[in-house]
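call fold(seq) -> tokens
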Amino acid sequence: MKVVIAIGANLAGPDPLTGALVSPSATCDAAVEALRATPGLEIVSVSPWYESEPIPPSGQPPYINGVVVGKTSLSPVVLLDTLHHIEAQFGRQRSVVNAARTLDLDLIDAGGLIRTEGRPLLPHPRATQRAFVLLPLRDVWPDWRDPLTKRTVEDLVSALPPQTIRRLTP
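ret:
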């Protein structure tokens, strides 16, 4: 099954191997490697990184965001649990909604499945409203369509309200 996973961070967090604090950018890079090391998940492509302002605006530091596309034999529930485990390894603590975080891994799409109840909700309920998901997704899967509306990623990007985001150069 083809999957889309969004990656984001806006706080320094611990490197799972050394415990040293690393930047949000380094955390995102390390999260890709953690995903690559996940049994049952093959990473097919990794987007460029973007820097974006928090949504909703909150005075938090900017986020580093990107998207990976992969193939998996894991069920959506097992994959979500795996993503939460990786987040915890990088110091993620769940507190209030939209809090700053050391790492955020969101399952955006899992084989076009539509799940409106239970966990995980699929496709991710706010993904089509976020430039920090859609712009990197367009970079790595320009033919992606929202499973609910069948709209193309390009159409969804064109319909976004203004959001502060910029592509980072490698």
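The longest strand covers residues 63-72.
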